Every structure is written in structure tokens, then in C-alpha cells.
Amino acid sequence: MSADEYGSDSGIPTFKIIVIGDVSVGKTSFVSRFCEGEFKESYPSSIGVDFKSKEVRTNDNSNVKLQIWDFSADISSRFVTVAKHFYSEAHAIIIVFDITNKESFQDLESHWLGELQQQTLRENHVKILIGNKSDLVERRAVSDATSLAKKYNCEYMETSAKKGDNIDKAFSTLAQNIYNAWKNGGFKEEEWADEKDSKKKKCTLQ
Ligand SMILES: Nc1nc2c(ncn2[C@@H]2O[C@H](COP(=O)(O)OP(=O)(O)OP(=O)(O)O)[C@@H](O)[C@H]2O)c(=O)[nH]1
Ligand SMILES: [Mg+2]
């Protein structure tokens, strides 16, 4: 799937991000808070995969576009071929758990991080682990995920999609890390839409 199929017409670097994690941890809320600045007390449980995008500015004042794919929790079992494709195209993976739900934390190692090891991923892909629902202080059931994050080479941040805490920071950190990898030639071949020629282009990035 190329960037221009999804409306990238500005010629700016476009990066694909997938969001995974257990049911109801707040994946859709997390993405909607960032892309639309809104929070709803309830979203219909996601089916398949949903797509949103937003531009972000990097430290050197460049714009990059994030294409964010919000996966339903059962995507990899129900849509094996589709999921494989998304994983192999992703520049970054956001793995979300709910700090009030111990099972969603345990499933990180037993399912999600293991799932990633089964997939073909881009070299130099970026990973971030998100402990969501940080506003529910009294219901916290997971003390700290820092060491797990370190073990799997992920950054770790706690967020509240409800209050908006750390949401922009999580995405800007991720965007910056992807951008740095891209600038350093981390993603050897990349496709994006050119401003003057909207036809798909294959470019070699050094
Ligand atoms: N208090 C609080 N509730 C949240 C937060 N994020 C999400 N929720 C609530 O958690 C529930 C599930 O949120 P969703 O965003 O639908 O979760 P999801 O991971 O996309 O769920 P599936 O698509 O079913 O896998 C909803 O009732 C949200 O309102 C948060 O940061 N704080
Ligand atoms: Mg959802």
C-alpha cells in the first residue's frame, strides 16, 4: 500500500504507524484524542482496522505525516494476511495496555510482544509502549512497565486519552524517532507522493 493511496498529496515524508493492544485499553480513544482532540466515553469496539492521519512538526521544523492504523484486538487472528502486510509496512508500532487492567499488561509479553516477533518488520522500526488511563489513579493495577519496555527496546509513556495527558508528547516522540531513523537512512527504500507528480514514486533515501 503506498502513501498516496491514502491522501498524502503534499510530498512530505509519510510514516505508517500501527496501534495494537488488548480490547478496551483505549487504542481508539488514544488515536482520536491525538488526531481530533476529542474523547468519547464510548466508542464502538473496533472491527478490523481504522485509519487516521495527522501532520507533526519535527525538531528541525520539518513536517512529517503520520498515518495511524488503529487495529482491532483480534486483527492478527482474523485477518492474518492483511495483518502481515500492515506489520511489514509499519515504520512504528504503538503497543497499548490499560494501567488499571493487569491482564492487558500480562498480555503484552504473552501475546503482543510475542506477536511482533512472529511478524516481518521493517529494519529500524520504532516501538513505543503506552500505559493508558493514567487518570484512573485509584484503580491502578500495574505499578511500572519501564523494565518490560526496556527489555523489548521500546520507549515507555503513560497517557490519559480522557484528560489528554502525554498524548501529543507520545506522538511527537514517536514522530521524532521515526524521522531520525529515516534521515539516517534507516528505512532503505521508501515511497511517498511527490508534490508535482502524484503518481507513486520509489525513491532511495540515503
Ligand atoms: N478513564 C479513562 N477511560 C478511557 C481512557 N481511554 C479510553 N477510555 C475508555 O475505555 C473504553 C475503551 O476505549 P476504546 O478507545 O474504545 O478502546 P479500544 O482499545 O479501541 O477497544 P477495542 O477497539 O474494542 O479493542 C471506553 O469506554 C473509553 O471511554 C482514558 O485515558 N481514561
Ligand atoms: Mg478501538
UniProtKB/TrEMBL annotation:
One Pfam family recorded for the sequence: Ras
Transferase recorded as keyword: no
Swiss-Prot/TrEMBL keywords: GTP-binding, Nucleotide-binding
Transmembrane segments: none
InterPro entries assigned: P-loop_NTPase, Rab, Small_GTP-bd, Small_GTPase
Keyword Cytoplasm in record: no
NCBIfam families: small_GTP (TIGR00231)
Protein name (record): Rab family small GTPase
Organism: Naegleria gruberi
Highest classification ranks of the organism: Eukaryota, Discoba, Heterolobosea, Tetramitia, Eutetramitia
